[in-house]
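Hey,
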Amino acid sequence: MDPYERSWVRLPLDGACNVRELGGHPTANGEQTLFHRFLRSDSLSMLTARDERFLYDYGVRAILDLRDPSEVADDPDRPIGPDVVSANIPLLSYNLADTDQASLMNDPENISMANMYRLILENYEAVRACMRFIADAPEGCVLFHCAVGKDRTGVLAMLLLSLAGVDKWDIVADYVQTRPNLMRSPVWHAQWEDYSLRKWRPILDSQADVIEQTYDLMNDEHEGVENFLLECGVRDEDVAAVRRRLVKW
């Protein structure tokens, strides 16, 4: 069996360290989320030619970039294949890279990741556009990503896994895997170990309580992911189409 024919947890790429499957999770109806349907990822700007071939052969036929347009301009994705469709749908208008880092370093508690994730959930237009893109994507695998595959990517992964019937704690476990994956990057590892940046660790980390609070918010204030998506204006047929990509229902 060729490597691209296998079902991976984390894909063995050289130019991205946080590309991983949404497949393999148990669901509420006793099924399992399907492999080769969704990949969550960090930036694709450093992919090698081997990585590009691997992702295409793995089945990637649609790429959803959740970053701000300025991030896209600074770090454009490497091409995967000529027939791969793509879209840039920013999930968050607030770009951490545009913030006055010095002032944040003095008082990093002013940044609440849970509050930032709430802003993502409140971006109904972008959530609706993401679900429409996924529902209309060609047959194959949809890869979605932001800069490091943690925050914007993490919230969308939470929505997709919830829609498939994956339970809260598997969703939390999926989220917290980001930092161990990113530690494979020399640049990220150096930032984590840099004493002068230690106040930033709550922002750099993928802490379980952040995604727990976001999951609870979705369920407590919106009575579950399906109601949340409908409140965002996602069409019933798009909800059904996205779910079908994830799991046999």
